[in-house]
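Dear colleague,

Thank you for sharing your sequence with our group. We've completed the structure prediction you requested, and as agreed, I am returning the results in plain text so they can be pasted directly into your records. Please verify that the sequence below matches your submission; if there's any discrepancy, let me know and we will rerun it promptly.
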Amino acid sequence: MKKFLQEVFTYFWIPLILALVSYVFFQLHDVILGIIILIALSAIYTIVRLYFLHKKWWLLIILVVVIGAATGYFFARSPASALTIDNTTVTGSSVSLTGGSVAISPSPQVNGKYTKGTKVTLTVSPAAGYDWKGWTGTDSDTSNPTTVIMNGNKHVTVTLESRPSLIINNLLVIGSVVSFTEGTVAINPVPGSDGKYTKDTKVTLTANPTDGYDWKSWSGTESDTSNPATVTLSSNKQITATFEPRISLTISNQLVIGSSVSFAEGSVTVSPAPGDDDKYAKGTKVTLTANPITGYGWKSWSGTGSDASNPSTVTLSSDKHVTVIFEQRYLLMVNNLVVTGPSTNITGGSVTLNPAPGADGRYTKDATITLTAIPAAGYRFDRWSGDFSSIVTSVTISINTNKNLSASFMRIYALTAAVSPAGGGAISPSSGTYDEGSNVILTATPASGYRFDHWSGDASGNINPLTINMNTGKSVTAAFVKVYSLTALVSPAGSGSVTPAGGTYDESANVTLITIPASGYRFDRWSGDVSGNTTSVNVIMNGNKNVTANFIKVYTLTVAVSPAGGGSVSSTGSIYDTGASVTITAIPATGYVFDHWGGDVSGNTTAVTITMTADKNVTAVFKIKP
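Please find the predicted structure tokens below.
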């Protein structure tokens, strides 16, 4: 427990010594009192420590004596206090400061100190160009003079501030008005007799331009674009008032004195109009609108901000001369109709115009316009007439007077030409469009292996070529029939004929061929695409056919007997194929005997064989039996 009390005493007492001594030195500025307190508290700490160590009762007596002596000194002393003003220690009846001085009454003692409780009066006297503003650390910081009670060291601060001056356009303000060539500036309030203001005075400035000038702006005020403007004088202020001359506007040598200017070709509206002095404030943006009369158009400006625009604008930085140019404008009519837009409709089609006319439906002189005729469905463009002639659908004209052009369209009809079957032939001309009322000659041309048969659709019959009148849309079909070739030959040549002798026949036709042998020939058989040996045959034309009629040469065998009644022969004669072998036998009658052969054979055998290589005459000769 003892050790604990010692440690608590040690850790508490040393900080207490440091705190008290620091306060006396640095806050009360009493050096002697600080030394006494330091010695007394150190002695008390030492005696207490010795008592805890040795337990001597007389140490307690010494402790009481030290405490009593220190306390007696503190209450019995009559301390002296120092006075400082703006960190300057007062040693006399005044203190000089930047911006003025302070008178002190009463002055401090010879040692520069005041006895406790002394009441000191402080009076500040600002230097020229300064104002007293306030104290810090006195009994009444807003009063001059003021007082301070010296119950300890005192630190007083006096605030002096400079009196600012006001300069406008390099002229010092010394009254209520500042004058310039361009105008005046009224000042409220006016400065003091020294030509200066109390700091933070708010001054109102009002610019009053003379005739022919406008106030434009301030520089250095709290609102440079307002008139009146204000300025707070926290320091010397340099203000600039800017005036500018008023501007006149002339259009094509006419001075603008109102909201419009009139000319022979039109007028110009002006917005805004000038002021009562017929002038504008510098920098005014004026809008000019040209208004041509009928038959004229605005062409351009000269001297504006955008000479190719209407309306246009001009910014008046100085006197301005603007020229407005009007020009005569012309009408363009198509088929006697005035064109008012990029296209116009007429019977049979329409016409487009590039460029389109202006809002007044007119064109400027020498304007180049491209007109394009566009036929409606069922029409074709035919020609231009009137003030321009051409057969080209798109034409370009230059307009230097009123123009009237006529676009002619022709009613057309479609002719559809078809063939049946496909590939069976062709029609000339083929499908197309033709003018109303025109005659179109159609020619059907069969393809190889076909023949034209007839017309169908909006035409009939089998006349080829055919004339069609285009009084409406027409659809015509040329019908073709497939044909095959029939070739009829005879063999050998000259041995006969065939009828019909060949030709072309419709597909599936049934052709009957008949043979006609020449003299000395007989029909034998058919060969090629038919067969058989009938003299007539039917051929179905389902393809090209080659047929041969074969004939055989024949000869006549004439057989006779001599004498008549002398006998007979086995063959009385006939017609035989060439090369045929004919055996003839002689048969004698009763009372007769065969004697010999005569004519184209010889011999006396009763039977003879003849080869038919030519006509033959044979006689069997008999004689009376002996």
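Summary note from our side: DSSP finds three helices and 53 strands in the chain.

Kind regards,
the structure core
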